[in-house]
Design a protein that fits this description.
mainly alpha, Arc Repressor Mutant, subunit A, 61% helix
Length: 143
């Protein structure tokens, strides 16, 4: 870099991890109410929100917003809420030792059983097994 020739041998460094930040979690949509709904869902998905809460926040009927949302993103608002809750849960399972019951609640699930069912359906494994596997991998990377 200082005018010297490049080394003959490449040194490759494997990345440790990728951490998604809020600034990268955005969508470009043309519909202003869908964009507002996405922002609201992103900010409140860890709370006990429902589709009706999103529609009320953006001042539109549930039915109209659901239609616009599906056209813009190809998925429902409920699917988006669940997606963000599970994303938060997988991060917390690896990064914390919070009990699964409390973790489920802090991610917006109304019960640990509901969280367990949704997680198993999405990832094909239980939250506990996911945590053990991914915390082990993270620990090995840190060595």
């Amino acid at each position: 870099m200082a005018g010297k020739p490049a080394p003959k041998t490449l040194i490759l460094i494997e990345p440790k991890e990728l951490v998604a930040r809020r600034s990268t979690d955005s969508y470009i949509v043309d519909h202003p109410q869908v964009a507002a709904a996405l922002r609201f869902i992103g900010e409140h998905s860890h709370e006990d929100i429902r589709v009706r809460d999103v529609a009320k926040h953006v001042h539109i009927s549930e039915r109209s917003l659901a239609r616009y949302f599906n056209v813009a993103l190809g998925r429902s608002m409920a699917e988006e809420i669940a997606r963000l809750r599970l994303e938060r849960a997988t991060r917390l399972l690896v990064e914390s030792n919070e009990r699964i019951k409390q973790l489920a609640s802090s991610c917006g699930f109304n019960s640990a059983n509901h969280f367990h069912r949704v997680f198993l359906q999405r990832y094909g494994t239980t939250p506990g097994k996911y945590r053990r596997r991914h915390q082990t991998v993270a620990a090995q990377r840190g060595k």
